[in-house]
């Protein structure tokens, strides 16, 4: 056999196969191009899009304020919309203690980027439960608490709500009127049905305590009640310790299920322990509850999306079964949580020096907010602005619920480039000594010129 012939004949047969294949592929490509030209004209109208019926959604009432602010070219613009801490210079703040913790993490070459377990970083979970329930909490000692790391406060609320929708006999959750704007959406989408309870009395600018008690009293037995652990958003109005005790008794006697939202531990009083007191009162009675914790504000870890959901149960066995079900909620939602924020928090909470440093920085943030309250109150008084503005110094936490109406808010945004939510809430944490006069001028003008 002629080897050349053999090779050339095999070569020519493989060439043939390749050229058939090439013609075929080119043909397919050309056909598909022809199809796309004839069947899917792309220029001009969107009428052929399968999404052409999709209407533009509204911006978020809180985060949309920042979107509008970012588009404003004015040099005097001021964002008092979102609850995010700013320095006296108006800049976002990364806490020193967070920088230190991050440095420790970077220097530790043994750290890897493996997946965390579905429930998150174990150290972080233990330390988070301890931070809220206290070092000597019987619930922790008896292993009756399950804590899972979640995507900040919002993610913790969502996971808790989905768990309740699946495994709790009552699907109705009562939220305060008013409350954080995202609450009704989070709970509805998780499968709960949302009702409100009376909370704020616009006439007194204080708590409608009787309304709250009446509404809890007439709620169906077992209903879930959402409670802001401290520094109620948006009103800045919290029950007193005595009122909390009455609320606790009513909640327990009616078998209501408390779901605490703690987004501001340390921001109300400047003390982490004092702000945890209402939750601790409920844990001390041995009853069950849920808790969503966020480190966005009190550690300034907004974008790290770090928080925790705890469920306090009657026994260790129930807690461990509850945890197994939380894993089934989390795994198909986002599989497991991110590692960086949890590592920062754990590093700070487990080291006595870093922890102490954190409490000092936290207190400084809380104190600066309080001093802004006094400055704004004085500035309005100096201008003789009509009305009683003492609620500015009485309210607690990041926000002042001014009482300004949506028209007055729109006026302040248009004429003074001051951005805030339309319910009249302003983030005191976004103010500085330099911007207080501008805000006071705007409020004065709004109150005297817009009704
Ligand atoms: N609960 C409350 C009461 C709350 O005010 C916020 C955030 C959250 C939970 C959720 O925070 P997270 O970043 O998921 O840990 N409130 C501010 C920011 C926002 O609306 O997202 C705010 O009211 O401005």
Q: What string gives the helices and strands in order?
A: HHEHHHEHEHEEEHEHEHEEHHHHEHEEH
Q: Please list the strands of the largest sheet in the order they lie side by side.
A: 2-10-9-8-7-3-4
Q: Which radius of gyration do the C-alpha atoms yield?
A: 28 Å
Q: State the oligomer.
A: single chain
Mean pLDDT figure: 92
Helix percentage range:
40-55%
Summarize the biggest pleated sheet. Answer: 7 strands, mixed
Beta-strand residue fraction: 5-15%
Bound molecules: ligand KET
Provide a concise account of the structure shown.
InterPro entries: Aminotransferase_I/II_large, Asp_trans, NHTrfase_class1_PyrdxlP-BS, PyrdxlP-dep_Trfase, PyrdxlP-dep_Trfase_major, PyrdxlP-dep_Trfase_small. Helix content is 50%, strand content 13%.
List key phrases describing it.
451 residues, alpha/beta, seven-stranded mixed sheet, two-stranded parallel ribbon, globular, disordered N terminus, binds ligand KET
Walk me through what this model shows:
It is a single chain. With 451 residues, this protein is α/β, with parallel strands linked by helices. The protein is built from 16 helices and 13 strands. The chain has helices spanning 3-39, 63-71, 96-107, 122-133, 138-141, 152-167, 183-189, 209-218, 241-253, 272-284, 316-334, 340-350, 352-383, 391-394, 406-416, 436-449, and strands spanning 78-79, 145-151, 172-177, 193-198, 200-201, 206-207, 224-228, 257-262, 289-294, 306-312, 399-401, 418-419, 425-427. The protein has a seven-stranded mixed sheet with strand order 2-10-9-8-7-3-4, with helices on both faces. The protein has a two-stranded parallel sheet with strand order 1-12. It has a two-stranded antiparallel sheet with strand order 5-6. Helix 3 packs antiparallel against helix 13 (352-383) and helix 9 (241-253) runs parallel beside helix 10 (272-284). The longest helix is centred in the first third of the chain and has 37 residues, at 3-39. Mean pLDDT is 92; it is low at 1-11 and 24-37.
């Amino acid at each position: 056999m002629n080897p050349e012939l053999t090779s050339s004949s095999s070569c020519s047969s493989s060439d043939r196969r390749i050229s058939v294949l090439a013609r075929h592929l080119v043909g397919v490509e050309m056909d598909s191009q022809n199809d796309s030209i004839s069947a899917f004209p792309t220029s001009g109208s969107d009428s052929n899009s399968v999404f052409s019926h999709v209407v533009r959604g509204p911006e978020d009432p809180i985060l949309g304020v920042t979107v509008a602010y970012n588009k404003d070219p004015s040099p005097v613009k001021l964002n008092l919309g979102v609850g995010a801490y700013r320095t006296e210079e108006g800049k976002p703040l990364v806490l020193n203690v967070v920088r230190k913790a991050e440095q420790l993490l970077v220097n530790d070459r043994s750290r890897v980027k493996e997946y965390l377990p579905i429930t998150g970083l174990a150290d972080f979970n233990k330390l988070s439960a301890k931070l809220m329930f206290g070092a000597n909490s019987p619930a922790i000692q008896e292993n009756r608490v399950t804590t899972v790391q979640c995507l900040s406060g919002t993610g913790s609320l969502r996971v808790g709500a989905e768990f309740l929708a699946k495994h709790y006999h009552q699907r109705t959750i009562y939220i305060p009127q008013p409350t954080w704007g995202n609450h009704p959406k989070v709970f509805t989408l998780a499968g709960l049905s949302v009702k409100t309870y009376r909370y704020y009395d616009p006439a007194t600018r204080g708590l409608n305590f009787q309304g709250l008690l009446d509404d809890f009293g007439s709620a169906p037995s077992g209903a879930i009640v959402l409670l802001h652990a401290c520094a109620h958003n948006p009103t800045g109005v919290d029950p007193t310790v005595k009122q909390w005790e009455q609320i606790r008794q009513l909640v327990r006697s009616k078998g209501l299920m408390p779901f605490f939202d703690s987004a501001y531990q340390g921001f109300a009083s400047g003390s982490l322990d004092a702000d945890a007191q209402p939750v601790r009162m409920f844990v001390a009675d041995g009853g069950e509850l849920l808790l969503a914790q966020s480190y966005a504000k009190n550690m300034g870890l907004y974008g790290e999306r770090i928080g925790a959901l705890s469920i306090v149960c009657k026994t260790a066995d129930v807690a461990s079964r509850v945890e197994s079900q939380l894993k089934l909620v989390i795994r198909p939602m986002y599989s497991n949580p991110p590692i960086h924020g949890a590592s920062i928090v754990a590093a700070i909470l487990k080291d006595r020096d870093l922890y102490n440093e954190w409490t000092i920085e936290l207190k400084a943030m809380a104190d600066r907010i309080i001093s802004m309250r006094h400055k704004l109150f004085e500035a309005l008084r100096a201008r003789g602005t009509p009305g009683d503005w003492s609620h500015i110094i009485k309210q607690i936490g990041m926000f002042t619920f001014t009482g300004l109406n949506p028209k007055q808010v729109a006026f302040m945004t248009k004429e003074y480039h001051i951005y805030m939510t339309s319910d009249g809430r302003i983030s005191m944490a976004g103010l500085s000594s330099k911007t207080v006069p501008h805000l006071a001028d705007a409020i004065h003008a709004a109150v005297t010129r817009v009704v």
